[in-house]
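Quick start: read one record
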Amino acid sequence: MVVKLPEPVKNVVENIIRLANTKLPADIVWALEAAAGWETNPAAAAQLGAILENVKKAEVLARPMCQDTGIPIFWVRGRFDHSIADDIARAVRESTEGIPMRPNTVDPISRRNNGDNLGEGMPCIHYIPTADDFTEVSVLLKGAGTENMTRLRMLDPADGMEGVKRFVVDSVLEAGGRPCPPSIVGVGIGGTSDDCVAMAKRALMEPLDFMEPERGISDLEEELFVRLNSSGLGPMGLGGDTTVLGVKVRKAACHTASLPVAVNIGCWATRRASARITDSDVVYSQGARL
């Protein structure tokens, strides 16, 4: 969707938060519909049918598709200044009341909830400065069911790619039905421990139909996709042919003595949206390669 006249940044951020909450990205809907078409397990087919009905109702009623509206995580790419953090915070506060979203953020020690999805260190914003002539703001709504299943392992380089594959498969299967499968699996390989986890989460922003240009990565994504869907875990962990809708892998160079690997899972409702702001318009979408 293209809006011809530029909007205030706060309004743009409110729009992408609402879009992510109420409309599932088309690539994920297509994947769910395909899964419903090939599913042979009756219980799994019923679950997929209920999910697709829920998706339709959320869009028609303009209401969040899940009661856990998550914690909004942002990426800001391109040109920006420090004021954008205030715009994003105001958008989160007003969206919490206006959409509405469940107030999820609490102080980790006192567990006090301010009721506005803000607090120390919130909203979570990652900055990617570039020389581009636009500002792109992306949001991923991350619920606790998936976020609690995040895993990091500092493998020995001798474990190699078989060790990486084993860790990813084990992490998803050990998570079981808790992250509300069929899932999207984000995988980070390399970097430092903190960057590896960040890559795994950032991978969830990428549309499922994006064709990875690096053959080694695309082959790894396909192999993990087949392995996980052959596991029989199925929708909601109740058994079936569809455990994951996709696997997305990101990588970075790492220390010669390290092999970090991280897994960050997105549920069937991997809720994402982006807006690219230029001097002349705002273009909205529901996926970005960050």
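The mean pLDDT is 96.
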